[in-house]
Protein 1
Amino acid sequence: MLGVLACSVTKTIPADEPLEEEPPPEDPTEEPGDEPVDEPVEQPSQGGSGGMAGTDGMGGSGGEPPLEPPRSDVIDVDEGTFTPGEPPPSAGEATFSQIVSVVGPPAVTNGGSAILHVQLSPPVPSPSFVLGLNGDTGYHTVTGVDPDGDGTYDITTVVAAGATQTSLTFRVALTDASGNVGPYSELAVPVIQSGTGDVKITLSWDRLHDLDLRVVEPSGEVIRYSNQSSGTGGALDLDSGANCSPSPANSENIFWPSGGGPTGQYVVSVHNYQQCTPGPIDYTVRVVYDNVVNTYKGTFAEGTASETESAANVHEIARFFR
Ligand SMILES: [Ca+2]
Ligand SMILES: [Ca+2]
């Protein structure tokens, strides 16, 4: 069911306190403890595990203007580096390894994440990729990660909340130690548009599974699958995985349109409702409001899904005031 890949872009900035109540196994790909430089204030109130927060290049406060690295307006790439301009041309076949395939989700949503799975033959340790996006103002360089050691390397991308494209075409090439760029492989991923406005909270995962996004708004009303719109105009407009039915984007989205988001505290959580395929389930939550963009990552252990809520299957992702 995986089709094309979408990509994420920019940076997901490093972890803050873990969000989950039960620490998951150490994820070697995450660096614990770094505070995002421009992180707007709030921190999750309880420690968890596997949480990670980031900012997307929003401005800092006070003092001299922060040096903001250039970034794509369309995607962020986890641990990637953005360079303005055209991607480097291919130098022909790389001799050490070839891209066999690039696979991504059937679709992605604006604000959601998409993981590109790049298969190499033969496998190489820590492969470096150039990741371009047709129509973008630059390209990303990123090291593929292969936690399960199967020769397929993951590149995690997050689509900007405000992206208006209906499709994204990614171009991925392997580079060697000398910087020579191999042939590009292309992957087109449709974008399913989801609502955006004063507040936009988007949950994404990477395979058939039923996670549920919920937001408690300042009035105390909860927006979730069983209450998809609130008195203040907040709405769940993208839902996935109910009854383990396949969903192209594997994403959920709750938003308040411009001018509609109430002031006060918002509480974001994710409920691991039903296991549809084996294995632990990783997820990404992007929280966007006013000038704040934060990205959180977490994992539910296999077997913890249940309609009955517990500390094992409900993760509080963020509390914020606006
Ligand atoms: Ca792999
Ligand atoms: Ca769901």
Note: Residues 1-61 have pLDDT under 50 and may be disordered.
Protein 2
Amino acid sequence: MATDFVKNNEKYAKDQHKPNLPIPPSKKLLIVTCMDARIDTFASLGLEQGECHVVRNAGGCAQDAIRNIVISQRLLGTREIAVFHHTGCGMLTFTTDQLKDILRKDADDAAKAEVDKIGSFLEFKDLEESVKEDVKFLKNHPLVLKETKVSGWIFRVEDGKVVQVA
Ligand SMILES: [Zn+2]
């Protein structure tokens, strides 16, 4: 719980934190991945503090990460993007219309107006296809630098392995 943060932070601050790292990621790498609580991006890919940016959102959707990617590339020098989606993702389990129905159930007028503004929750039906689409989206996006190396991956929650698919 959030109330344990201060207590739990003591050891980290004393033994693990690296206060003098430069702001730009040393590997010039940005990872887009899902917010899923079962994924430990740094440990699973052998990455350390200071080496990369990690943008997390529901699904690891590239479209949702554009604001972060622009800042990362133009102001902090990253030149490679790796997109990760994963098996057992919640984004495979619903449709935008279903979630909108849930939101509208107990919504007041202000909430209903917000629901109407949402185009899509960016859910997907096919895991591998969704990674390929995100890679294509980034390669063709006018604000993503042309020289960017973009790759697409699946993280398998069952066994912790990663598989490149794009
Ligand atoms: Zn997920």
Note: The helical segments are 5-16, 41-45, 66-76, 96-105, 109-117, 127-140.
